[in-house]
Amino acid sequence: MGMVSNIFNDEAIKKLSGNLGIGHTRYSTSAASEAVNSQPFVVHTAHGALATAHNGELVNAASLRRQVLERGVGLSTHSDSELITQSLCLNPNTCERDGPDWPARIRHFMTEAPLSYSIVIMLKDKIYGVRDPYGNRPLCIGKIVPVDVDRKVKVEDAPAEGWVISSESCGFLSIGARYVREVEPGEIVEMTRNGIRTVDIVNRPDQKKMSFCIFEYVYFARSDSLFEGQMVYSVRLQCGRQLARESPVTADIVSSVPESGTAAAHGYARESGLHFAEVLCKNRYVGRTFIQPSNRLRQLGVAKKFGALSENVAGKRLVLIDDSIVRGNTIGPIIKLLRDAGATEVHIRIASPPLLYPCYMGINIPTREELIGNRMNPEELARHVGADSLAYLSVEGLEEAVKLNRQTKGKREQSGYCTACLTGEYPGGVPDLEW
Ligand SMILES: O=P(O)(O)OC[C@H]1O[C@H](OP(=O)(O)OP(=O)(O)O)[C@H](O)[C@@H]1O
Ligand SMILES: NC(=O)CC[C@H](N)C(=O)O
Ligand code: SF4
Ligand SMILES: [Mg+2]
To answer: What is the CATH number of the domain that holds 150?
Structure first.
């Protein structure tokens, strides 16, 4: 439990040996935030050890759970990720001649459960990387190159000392790896000591469209990560520009709610010609508020997290940008802080549309009721949080910002996005949930 650095201290790292490994930082979506649900899940099968780590959430976890239990397998948690692990261990109905056919088992699992995941599966001597057929969760490949290779040498020309696969590319450079490409929707990639290869690509059912989570661009991903050939930061900047065009304000300065709101605030400032000034000092030892597992922890997080830079804000009419309003825990206390510090007007501009529908695919917003956008329209919300005005980016504006500079050339297919939490249009249809 806790931050990666709490767990992997020097001593713990020294104990790790071997030439392959997987890891997972868990943001709980389908079972409690407790150590028992932490990943990777490791099981010992008749064919040796198998470990899996999963980013996402299985939409049909309930029916899959029933299937696994009916086959006589006991489960020790309520995690959907344990379910993936056990599904892969089940002996298939088809005959396996020379030991287990892991790609066939993975393919079978993907057909039974097409949403939503990036998975890494580790065996004794190989790792499989799997992205769901809708491409809802991100997954990309990096190449570990010798430290003395010049940055100008193209990644395809540099020798490989190893390979990495990850939901986000932001960690690659810090371990001496270079970004290679995204894993395609439905692709199964195999990594061994001989290198990396595509084993198969599993199609989506009924010609459904690719549905990459648009909220990765809005909030989830770190801003130096790359998706679809563009940096997340640049998309957020573009969202801010679009927001300035859609909802201008007469004001003295533009500022942001750090961290994820900052790129959009710079975009808003550039487009509007208003001066950007920081007004909040963020406590660097407090992590992200939204991903805390309970509302109490989320609310406490906000109080601990920010202080006002009063000399920047006193006497100013302020446009304050955040990337999103979800449950509405963050913005109210911040407005109060800034008014106490002397702001004369506070206009809230949000660089995404209101979240109105639950997500069943990896973001922990399971009910409509908890989403403040369903309880208040922008005017009511402005009054509720003490803002002079409040406006959101439009869905079209967000989609335009995402599409403006993406590089989809040479890709198997054009991108498409999941916007279900904004529009109610779920990529696989409204899921048949039992929770
Ligand atoms: O309306 P709410 O339910 O309060 O959630 C929205 C807020 O939560 C997120 O910030 P968070 O502190 O999690 O992360 P950040 O530091 O990356 O912005 C997001 O950037 C908003 O600021
Ligand atoms: N965000 C995640 O990676 C969550 C994975 C999985 N659904 C869990 O709750 O453990
Ligand atoms: S519903 Fe929203 S958060 Fe969930 S996958 Fe779709 S875009 Fe992402
Ligand atoms: Mg934030």
So the answer is: 3.60.20.10
Is 29 domain-assigned? yes
> Is position 390 within any domain?
yes
pLDDT in tens, 61-76: 999 999 999 999 999 9
Q: What is the CATH number of the domain that holds 306?
A: 3.40.50.2020
pTM for the model stands at: 0.95
Q: Is residue 432 part of a domain?
A: no
Please write the tens of the pLDDT for every residue from 87-145: 999 988 888 888 899 999 999 999 999 999 999 999 999 999 999 999 999 999 999 99
Task: Pick the ligand that lies closest to the CA of residue 56.
Answer: 2
Q: What is the mean pLDDT of the chain?
A: 93
Shortest-distance Cα residue to atom 5 of ligand 3: 213
Name the residue among 293, 290, 292, 301 with its Cα closest to residue 261. 290
Same domain, 366 and 385: yes
Residue 291 in any domain: the answer is: yes
Q: Ligand 4 is a single-atom ion; what residues have CB below 5 A from it?
A: 260
| Cα(105) to centroid(ligand 1), Å | 39
The ligand 3 site (C-beta within 6 Å) comprises: 136, 213-215, 359, 361-363, 418-421
- Give the distance from CA 205 to its chain's centroid: 24
Claim to verify: residue 191 and residue 303 sit in the same structural domain: no
Ligand 2 centroid from CA 25, angstroms = 9
Question: What is the residue range of 306's domain?
Answer: 231-398
Whole-number Å distance, alpha carbon 266 to ligand 4 midpoint, is 15
pLDDT tens-place string over residues 361-376: 988 888 899 999 999 9
Q: Is 143 in the pocket of ligand 2 (CB under 6 A)?
A: no
Domain shared by 275 and 350, yes or no? yes
Question: What's the structural domain count of the chain?
Answer: 2
**Ligand 3 binding pocket mutation candidate from 214, 398, 402, 417 (most atoms within 8 A of CB):** 214
Q: Do 208 and 75 fall into the same domain?
A: yes
Domain boundary among 169, 193, 220: 220
pLDDT digits (tens, 9 = 90+) for 146-175: 999 998 999 999 999 999 999 999 999 999
Protein residue closest via CA to atom 7 of ligand 2: 57
239 and 202 in a common domain? no
Q: Whose CA is nearest to atom 2 of ligand 2?
A: 55
